[in-house]
Amino acid sequence: MKRLFIAYLPLALIAAVPAAENPPAGAYTVGFASFGPTRTELFIARGDGAGARPLLSESWNNYNAALSRDGKWLTFTSEREGSADIYRMRIDGRDRQLLVGGPAFDDQSVLSPDGRRLAFVSDREGQPDIWILNLKTRALTNVTRHPGGDFRPSWSPDGQWLAFSSDRDSTDPRLSFSILHSTAIYLVRPDGSGLRRIGKTGEFEGSPSWSRDGKSVVFYAGDIANVNKIVHPKRLRGVTQLVSIDIASGTRTVLTDGPGEKTSPHWLKGKKLAFVSGGPDGGLSLMGGGTVLRGEVSSPSWSADGGRLVFHREADPHWPPFQRWKSLDPAFKLVRTGVFPSWLPSGERIVLNDKTAGILHNDIISIAADGSGQRTLFHDEKRSALAPEVSPSGKQIAFGLGNFFQGTQGRALADIALINIDGSGLTILTDGSGNYGLPSWSPDGSQIVFRGAGNGEGKDGLLIIDVASRVQRHIPGTVIKDNFPSWSPKGDLISFTSNRDGDYEIYTVRPDGTGLRRLTDIPGNDAHNSWSPDGEWIAFASGTHGFRDEAVLHPYNPQPYGEIYVMRADGSDRRRLTNNQYEEGTPKWSIARPEKPVRP
Question: Where does the signal peptide begin and end (predicted)?
């Protein structure tokens, strides 16, 4: 698979990206959507779940805490500096110190039983591997070094082994545009020797935890049909079970049955098995019956004596969010908005969709440029309004209107529609006979390019319609696999994404169909391309770095295509702006042009 080349990615990117000579900070602003939480907060409680209280009340994401064996310390991941870094502190919040930091993704940490070493997940060599930090010498060791993704390390009680999940043998089952990565359970010694798989390939196994005597490993397991339900944006209920494997014999025992999601198992004293249960009545449960703690519980961790418990949950969930994120490149500021943001020419308001994903039934809303003043511009009871784009004049909004993914019986139909900027005056431009969407205006506002799919010869691929006459034409050479068209502000090129050459890559073509050019050639899907206001840059979302965690634990991130990148109009000078485990996409630029050009 192309994913096998991820290990070579950092060197390739370094070679492809010329060094920037003092680019002006904040020259551009890119808005985008993220499937990540608005804010996650750490909680601490007694071992039975009683007395749960926030441990840190901060404005950034803190998550994946793990207690030391004696229960006096904990390690956790924090995004306070923009990327995911690992900290250690006492359970009362004192003596906080950075253990692992920098632009890399560092997460899922756990202290060794003797407290001298820290195992964690990091992509500092390009792909998520299991690493170990010696807390005394600060030496870092890559334990697993593999092009696939390795996740959720767990120390054996004697500190001689690590159990972890990995998608290195994943069959990458394809479900529409999503790619779910199956994971299996592996063992490895802290020095990297003795690697072996103890789980099944082709299933979704994860979050291994050792028995207290070190003789077995327990984990969750599910099949593709159920995991597809779990990661669906509509949150369809899936089923996973808890499984134990005897290390010596390899005997596999299914410990649970019945409906519902069961994840993050942990053996407690008295041979009690605690786990996270999903669904409306979910929380932290015990095998055999009983709920320790109701509500959202993620990544629970107990002290060895079972007296203390830490976990995290989302705090202050709201949609659409409006958050300024730290960018990996100071020339490009980042603003997290909702899905498919589009700025008015004045820069004072943003038009966007109201839901977290295009697969859901969407309305068109607008918010002020600071995130306040939300109001609904368009709603249709039966049809979804997807991917609004404000016209160059700021007087109209183009969008797709219909049933794109909503599970309609028979063929899904959608049209290109217009409304006035205040939401009035609905006009349907196309004839109602096809599946059309994702419009983008020409710079003078006289034409719109859009995508057609499943409509027959001459109506699939990229099409252009004259707004006044409604005369429609097909761009020669474009096919049903071509998607997300975006018209350059200079008028000379249209960018789009296509899997015509394998996975999804970014291309440009002239409006007359000539000059087809492929801009990206890195592993993974590249899509959601968007031009900067001056036509010099293209923002896009890329899945080149793969997944950073188990699919079941991140149900709103069903595909690895999710980091925000920018590149010049010819595909050169590629720059990465985000690095996290969430799926991000639909980047759009604010209208303001840079005061100074970004110099190569």
Answer: 1-19
